[in-house]
Structures are given as structure tokens and as C-alpha cells.
Amino acid sequence: FLGRAVARAAPASASARPQCRRVRCAAKDAAWAPGNESPIHLDGTLAGDMGFDPLNLGEDPQNLAWYQQAELIHARFAMLAAAGAVAPSLFGSVVSWPGAGVEWYDMGTYDGYWCDTNTLLTVQFLFMGWAETRRFMDLKNPGAANADPLFDYSVSATDAIGYPGSAFNPMGYGKSGDELAALKLKEIKNGRLAMMMCVALYA
After folding, report:
1. Which of 31, 36, 65, 83 is such that its CA lies 20 to 30 A from the CA of 134?
2. Any known ligand binding at 41?
3. How many CA atoms lie less than 13 Å away from 35 in the CB half-sphere?
4. Where chlorophyll b is bound, by residue (predicted)?
5. Is residue 21 part of an annotated ligand binding site?
6. Which letter, b or e, does each residue of 41-61 get, where b requires 16 or more Cβ atoms within 10 Å of its Cβ?
7. CATH topology of domain 61-202
8. 13-54: per-residue pLDDT in tens?
9. Does the annotation flag 179 for ligand binding?
10. Which of 138, 156, 157 has its CA nearest to residue 72?
């Protein structure tokens, strides 16, 4: 017996029908290049986020966290370097110390410090190596550097990586979230300016 069965489905009720919603999405504008869209991974949550990542280097969240910390520490070093470059020539006539009045472009050959340049470089490598190792450990394992084995200080477990607070914030700045966000923005903006200044000095 050959037959053809025709099945008629009952009309679906209104409650069983899928609900359709109209959603309007707008990409975040890239502040560094008006008219361009910011990458998806730069959503404005990072301090100083201008939507600048033309090569999508921070597309991976782990890489983004690494680059953010790298920029922050380079910005802080650049601010110290920029101040150290101009301070001797600006204040050398007011305050006297070894190297006062020496222009920044002659500091590399100046030999009037308390020790020779090689010794200063060795000490710098040791201290910076210690600090960078601690920072690397905290980045890889958050909370690992909350207490130091050599120096008597402790970092609050609630402090964000790169912003230890506690012993490093004796004045208690940034108690509120808005104030802390504003200070982070000022720091990274001044740090970026200092990095450009260091590039100009090197050039």
C-alpha cells in the first residue's frame, strides 16, 4: 500500500512565537583618530583608553593586560627620566649637589659622582631587577607580591595590579572611585607626554 500522508500542524499560539527585538549597536569612536571605530577589546574601561590599537595587539585579554602594565611602568620611568634630565640645569644654580649644572647630554660622561658609571649601572640593574621581578610575579599570579620578603611593607589584597596603594600611597589619594579614575587618567596622560619627551631628548 502506497499512500501520502499530509500532516497539518496546528497554528502556534502567540505566546509560543519567538519574540523579536530590534537592537541598535554603535561602535565606540576612536578618540585618537576621529571618524574611526575603536577596537572591540578597547571598551573604555582602561585608564586613558583612546581606542589606539591599529594592529590589534591587545585582542587577547592576557596580552592586553601585559601591554597595559608595560605602558604604565614605562610612563612612570619616563616621568622620572624627564625630571632627572632637566632638574640639574634648572636648579643647579640654586642647590648644590654632585652633577648640579651638568646638562643632560653630558651626564653620561660626567665622572664627579660618588662612584663610577659602571657601579651606578650595576646598582640600577639590581634594584630595577628586584622591582621588576616582583611586578612580574604579581602580574602572573595576582596577590603574590602583597607582602615583601626583604622590606617591611604590605600591599592590600584589594589593590589593583600596578596601583599598589597602601605603603605607596601615604597621603591616601584616590579614596573614591571617581577620584582614583581621574588620578589614573592624569598619570597615564603625563606619562605618555614624558615618553614623547624622552624620545625627543634621545633624538
Report:
1. 83
2. no
3. 0
4. 76
5. no
6. ebeeebbbbbbebeeeebeee
7. Chlorophyll a-b binding protein (1.10.3460)
8. 555 566 667 655 555 777 777 877 888 888 888 889 988 988
9. no
10. 138
